[in-house]
């Protein structure tokens, strides 16, 4: 395996041992990118095969004229603007520029060296132009929107050849409840490298900004608990309070059994909330959050399958606000009031279902067809795939993310640490006390445990 630290990302030499050489091969359709950093390789894969960005694009496109965002995001823009302005002089002395973009990659503001800003303007690295990956390929701002850590893109690591003279470092600030990006803070230099402290400063700034969001989310959680207590005093229906991501803040004893979470224990801190592992429920909560953001009087209803139930249960969803900001929803079970939600399958964004799973083998990306994957297993911070090509590390970070991508593709979460391909289950073994184990059709015939709260969903999926 090549040592990536010995590669020259700035060089335009077509040699095999340079990043530019890897870029030339990948643009021509090759997948063997020797020595390229995995995060850059994955980004190039998105740019070429998913977003189909022209690698010979010379400037960023104009951003969408109107972008909808929550009032909460204004807090982030203001905080990042303050911190960017505070280091603008230092960055300017290094010949760099600092930029802030929103969640769509639209540049909102820019500070720094005037000469560098003039060069940046030629590529439309300026306010009101879009630097998302889907618009402009691999770059500090767009790739940070796709990542969960500070990102540095040097020279020929940029997808578009016209930007190979730039070095960029960006970090996304994410909503502490939904995990969705809100904004990106980025530093760029022309024909030079960034100071060693750039990534640490960006990460520290994002952490401090997200601390503000965490405190506000805790206030929102407390408001949800108060709304839950008020509603319980007025109704006998089973009740739960969930945040906009569908995670449970508090549930009564009946609702907690249906959702498979602890009962009557409030969790206002977003880090302590529970994931019910019910895709239909989570989708309904997120759909309701979007509707209520645009219409505070919105109330909806639908039916979902819950844990320990063989028939769908009707639920009613009512939004909760704090100072005009949506903080979550109250879910009443056995009640059907308000607008009927559309079917989850028809309401999800087109193209959400993946055709392949990206895995890593040494310094290569392995593009797996879904039938080749037997199951995914979480080990620490990594996700490992059991496949027809052996055991491979998934490019996706976190089993939750992989689960959300594969839910509509015949995969099911059966345990806190496992997601399985339903079509690859060969046998179901029932053990003492009703414990279930799935025997997969891999050559090694591995057995995957099924947790008690996921057992009803497995039985429904397999019709047993």
UniProtKB/TrEMBL annotation:
It comes from the Bacteria. Keywords: DNA-binding. PROSITE patterns: HTH_LYTTR (PS50930). The keyword DNA-binding applies. GO terms for molecular function: DNA binding; phosphorelay response regulator activity. Residues 357-464 form the HTH LytTR-type domain. Gene3D superfamilies: 3.30.450.40, LytTr DNA-binding domain. This is DNA-binding protein.
């Amino acid at each position: 395996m090549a040592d990536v630290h010995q590669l020259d990302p700035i060089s335009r030499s077509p040699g095999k041992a340079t990043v530019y050489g890897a870029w030339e091969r990948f643009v021509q359709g090759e997948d063997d990118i020797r020595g390229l950093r995995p995060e850059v390789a994955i980004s190039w894969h998105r740019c070429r095969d998913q977003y189909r960005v022209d690698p010979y694009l010379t400037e960023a496109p104009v951003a969408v004229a109107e972008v909808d965002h929550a009032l909460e995001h204004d807090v982030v823009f203001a905080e990042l603007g303050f911190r960017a302005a505070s280091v603008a002089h230092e960055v300017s002395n290094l010949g760099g520029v600092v930029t802030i973009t929103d969640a769509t990659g639209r540049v909102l503001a820019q500070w720094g060296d005037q000469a560098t800003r003039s060069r940046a303007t030629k590529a439309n690295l300026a306010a009101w132009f879009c630097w998302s990956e889907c618009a402009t390929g691999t770059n500090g701002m767009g790739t940070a929107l796709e990542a969960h850590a500070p990102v540095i893109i040097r020279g020929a690591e940029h997808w578009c050849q016209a930007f190979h003279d730039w070095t960029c470092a960006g970090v996304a600030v994410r909503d502490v409840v939904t995990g969705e990006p809100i904004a990106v803070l980025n530093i760029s230099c022309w024909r030079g490298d960034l100071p060693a402290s750039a990534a640490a400063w960006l990460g520290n700034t994002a952490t401090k900004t997200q601390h503000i969001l965490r405190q506000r989310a805790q206030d929102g959680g407390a408001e949800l608990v108060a709304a839950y207590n008020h509603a319980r005093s007025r109704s006998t229906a089973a009740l739960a309070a969930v945040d906009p991501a569908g995670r449970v803040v508090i549930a009564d004893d009946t609702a907690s059994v249906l959702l498979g979470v602890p009962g009557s224990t409030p969790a206002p801190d977003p880090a302590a909330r529970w994931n019910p592992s019910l895709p239909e429920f989570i989708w309904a909560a997120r759909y309701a959050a979007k509707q209520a953001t645009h219409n505070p009087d919105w109330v909806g209803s639908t039916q979902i399958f819950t844990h320990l139930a063989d028939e769908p249960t009707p639920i009613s969803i009512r939004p909760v606000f704090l100072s005009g900001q949506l903080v979550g929803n109250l879910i009443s079970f056995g009640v059907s009031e308000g607008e009927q939600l559309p079917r989850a399958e028809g309401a999800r964004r087109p193209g959400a279902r993946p055709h392949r799973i990206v895995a890593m083998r040494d310094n290569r990306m392995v593009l797996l067809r879904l039938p080749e994957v037997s199951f995914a297993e979480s080990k620490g911070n990594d996700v490992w795939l059991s496949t027809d090509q052996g055991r491979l590390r998934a490019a996706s970070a976190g089993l939750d993310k992989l689960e959300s991508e594969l839910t509509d593709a015949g995969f099911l979460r059966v345990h806190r640490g496992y997601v399985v391909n339903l079509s690859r289950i060969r046998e179901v073994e029932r053990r003492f006390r009703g414990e279930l184990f799935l025997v997969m059709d891999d050559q090694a015939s591995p057995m995957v445990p099924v947790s008690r709260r996921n057992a009803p969903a497995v039985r429904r999926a397999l019709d047993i």
